[in-house]
Design a protein that fits this description.
The chain is an alpha/beta fold. It has one domain: Ribonuclease Z/Hydroxyacylglutathione hydrolase-like (Metallo-beta-lactamase, Chain A, 4-Layer Sandwich), CATH 3.60.15. The chain contains eleven helices and twelve strands. Strand 7 and strand 8 form a beta hairpin. Helix 7 packs antiparallel against helix 8. The longest helix is centred in the last third of the chain and has 20 residues. 44% of the residues are buried. The structure holds zinc ion. The site of zinc ion (ZN) has 7 residues, from helix 2.
Amino acid sequence: MPAPEPLDLLHLGRERVIGSYLLETDGGPALFDCGPATTVETLKRRLAERGLTLPDVRHLLLSHVHLDHAGAAGLLVREHPGLAVHVSAIGAPHLVDPTRLERSARRLYGDMFDTLWGELAPIPRANVNIVGDRVLGLECFPTPGHASHHVCYVDREGTLYAGDAAGVRIQPANYVLPPTPPPEFDLDAWLRTLTEIVRRAPARLALIHFGVAHDPEPHLAQLRERLAAWTSEVEDGATQDEFIAARQADAAALPPGDAAGYEQAIPFWQSYLGLARYVEKQRAAA
Ligand SMILES: [Zn+2]
């Protein structure tokens, strides 16, 4: 199997923000993550460029249920009722009944929700498969930290289908950022996840935001370092404005187009809210 390439879903018309991957599995063609409902037409166009229509895709492997990764899943199943959707046990109920997921996302995104994500449709329980250690010939393992229900998949060639567990890197840039949204960002869980990923020595990381990283070790080391640094900034009392100003200063080193891509994939206000909530929970538990 050739090294995977992302299907660019052109979220809000911008290249290299949200991707999906088409892979060949023991169960036939599958997608890894599918983007939000707002990019379904682009997804279908990308499939057509590869000579496929949606019904040719038998399986959808999800990293987690956040809308930039899985928002379109319900629409895809409605249009293609034979599609099997693979997800962790904790994520599954949110696909069958997305009411709570939609409520909390609307709270977070306010007026921007519909523009960013679009419709969130429920998926019949019969289409949902809860993942175990192996799925369609791929290894599957829990990768909490970004979200408690996050999983990754590894194929026989050593490609790790990372979702958000390996961070955000708008390639070809080298810069790796941790997406740390509320309510579930958990530093300790994420650091353990990085150890689990490194232990598997993946040959490459297929990132949703964005592209395939061929240097997993330095990439993951950078993520580990930055996760710890961001958390300590907030532990040390950085306000939201200070945190955002510091991130904009970091981003000033990037080419202008790249900085905008990072900010769209992982808004800094949102990362701040997740870090602040995590720090608060740690203090309450201590
Ligand atoms: Zn994401």
